[in-house]
Design goal:
This protein has about 325 residues and is an alpha/beta fold. About 40% of the residues lie in helices and about 20% in strands. The protein has a six-stranded parallel β-sheet with strand order 8-9-10-11-12-13.
């Protein structure tokens, strides 16, 4: 039986209908059932350019050089069982959907890209229009990418990626989360917000509430930067997604301990993990050092099994949670 979602973009500019027989995710090659997301890495980067919005240009990297360096790491991840990888590089920071499309086809990994804007780092990566346009106008841009493709391509975003300042939200950060809320209500795309500490996470959730968006539409990115684990429990119990996305060789013990705490608190079903690895940087010789996407499989999973986690629980963490978190669905209050 078809689930029928009638989506009205409240500015009066657009109105369209989305029908889905079952939940879907949107990859760079098109929509697929969420059940085919499989083992997923929800926060990685294939290319990131830190030059800033004012100097940003796709002429700063050569596709062939990026592919030659990045493809072996994607292939390695695929051999570890990765089916889907979320590339969290936003616009004006190195999002290149044609590059992602090629890498996906050649690696056989489903890659998911995003719409949105990055407002952290003192707004260095925000284009000039972000300061003058309203939240509604920004949302129109992001909805347009969802409806008609990014950069005159067929590639559509599979989530919204924003970034906010680490303290109490600035006005520009409030505008970005508001625009993300409007975009979610018009598209069903999940909001991933580079956040860190719990204070701005709570403030964003309050804005989403005011905009009629359920916490289940929100991913608290880089939650591991918050030093009070009780905050993970509190936000998870609200229904938001807690993303502990900085797995490295030197912090596996912390992840095991923290995931055990969240399991005991019965919020394990709201947790996401990833590496935040990769990072071909066109500003460095040969793209700099590229960190592989393997620590979760070679170190974290064995450590979790040793600590008493079951295979079903690991499947929940790496397969079921991502599929639920990023299924296209309007989540209202």
């Amino acid at each position: 039986m078809y689930r029928r979602l009638i989506i009205f973009f409240f500015s009066g500019i657009s109105c369209f209908v989305v029908r889905a027989q079952e939940p879907v995710i949107i990859t760079v090659t098109g929509s697929v059932p969420s059940s085919r997301a499989g083992l997923s890495l929800i926060h990685e980067h294939l290319l990131v350019d830190f030059v800033g919005a004012e100097k940003y240009s796709r002429d700063r990297w050569q596709e062939e050089k990026v592919v030659n360096k990045v493809l072996p790491f994607l292939t390695e991840a695929q051999q570890e069982g990765v089916i889907t990888l979320f590339d969290c590089t936003p616009n004006y920071l190195g999002r290149d959907v044609r590059l992602l499309l090629r890498l996906s086809k050649e690696s056989k990994v489903q890659i998911i890209t995003n719409t949105g804007l990055y407002g952290g780092s003192d707004n260095k990566y925000l284009p000039a229009y972000a300061f003058t346009e309203t939240a509604e106008q920004l949302a129109e841009r992001w909805i347009e990418e969802f409806k008609n493709g990014i950069d005159n391509s067929s590639v559509r975003p599979g989530f919204i990626k924003i970034s906010v300042n680490p303290g109490s939200l600035s006005e520009i950060s409030k505008k970005l989360i508001t625009a993300a809320a409007l975009t979610h209500r018009a598209t069903g795309l999940t909001i991933m917000s580079h956040t860190g500490p719990v204070l701005p996470a709570r403030e964003q959730l309050e804005i989403l509430k005011q905009q009629g968006v359920n916490p289940a539409a929100f991913v608290w990115v880089h939650a591991q930067n918050e030093k009070q684990p009780q905050s993970f429990i509190d936000i998870g119990r609200m229904g938001a997604w807690v993303s502990l996305d900085g797995v490295q060789d030197n912090n596996v013990e912390w992840y095991v301990k923290t995931l055990a705490l969240l399991k005991q608190a019965n919020v394990f079903q709201r947790v996401l993990v990833s590496h935040d690895a990769g990072w071909f940087d066109p500003g460095k010789p040969e793209g700099g050092e590229f960190r592989p996407f393997t620590t979760i499989f070679r170190k974290l999973i064995p450590a979790l099994l040793q600590a008493g986690f079951t295979k079903d629980e690991i499947n929940r963490l790496l397969v079921e949670n991502p599929a639920e978190a990023f299924s296209l669905s309007i989540r209202g209050n």
